[in-house]
What does this fold into?
Amino acid sequence: MPERKGQYTVTLSGRPTILGYSAVVGKKEGEGPLGRYFDMVFEDTTLGEKTWEKAESALQREAFTRALNKAGISPSQVNYMFAGDLLNQSIASTFGLREFGVPLMGQFGACSTMAQTLALAAIFVDSGAADICAAITSSHFCAAERQFRFPLGYGGQRPPTSQWTATAAGAVIVGFGGNGVKIADVTVGYITDFGINDTNNMGAAMAPAAAETLNAYLIDTGTRPDDYDLIVTGDLGAIGSELFREIMERKSFQLGANYSDCGMMLYDRSRQDVHAGGSGCGCSASVLCSYILSKMTSGELKNVLFIATGALMSPTSSQQGESIPGIAHLCHLVKTE
Amino acid sequence: MEVTSQEYRKLSEKVSPRSPVLKNCIFAFLIGGLICAIGQVVTNLAMESGIELDNARLIGSATLIAASAILTALDVFDSIAKHAGAGTIVPITGFANSIVAPAIEFKTEGLVLGLAANMFKIAGPVLVYGITASIIYGLILNLLNMLK
It folds into this structure.
């Protein structure tokens, strides 16, 4: 049963298990350092679809189908799926997942969606409300660009602080049983806004939220950063992760070599022209559902804090001069022998 | 010690790299200059084949517009613009690109509400303020002439 620990953290005493997981990505992501960990790399970023939105839906469908296959279960066995994305009204999720006939609770957490949906799936399973739940999310560079920035063919220059929206989807199936990776605790973050309003510097906008959530978790559980094999933030990128380290230091938590960021892991910044790193729901989702969960399954990583971060603005709020509120949710993952 | 919002914004500015202004200016100067030179070459060629100056200039502009539109459709324009910056935006090439790019992108939402409605999404503000400015300029010029 889920039990509260401290002010913000929920401990899942039954320790729900990750029964299956899958990450599918686009060409650029496949060419990155994590290329060999993905279940599928689509060389054609349209995925054979007529629109970018349909392409993103296909990504989610593919990720979910593959995760189900790896878990060896059918869609009818899944009690709930929690899914979301960056497109208006979460259409990548609703159109991508409509054929499965699984009860859906749509989620919006911007780029923090993977941690948000995984936390909900784990809490539902641990509470007994469900036997099996799924957490699914995605992003697509081309679909996000046309909604948030400029048409693809427009000839503009991206500032060095900007991040590259990942074309990727991740899906996780949570249930009980088996010897897989387990979800031990979750910490749901609160909205943190330090007044950054540059939409080309999202890492800086989200870093304080990540720091608040990690700080809350460490205080609630009485642990230190050194107690974990890996602490990985969502998609802060080069600038955001530097700021994150700085704020954590001010909170008297020194982060060592065990800290990394999905936005920095997904691409090779020196040769892939992504400026400050990756972003988008699919960024942290695909890194979690490939490299991190693979390394945990094999036992190379045993104790991981996954903190996905989101920037909660819209094109409207940005044009109206509002700052960018950030959010971050944490899932504590463990692998026992 | 906790970080305040004000402190954080300063910190963020410190660690955020700035755009390489000098490099961007040099590239804009070279590529922008090259585009203008191409326009001039086309104009001169037109004049040599016996076309009047005014019409030759129109042919020069039209050639650059057509070239930008084709390069945008071929997904080449943005790769050049990434390095050229203002070098491709300021000449007539930027204007052509800003109309063709959304026209292609929003075609998926239909010919009326997609293509046509979004065609001037980027160029629209330039037209609105450009035309407004030229009217104000014309009025001032006219007033000055009347005072003479």
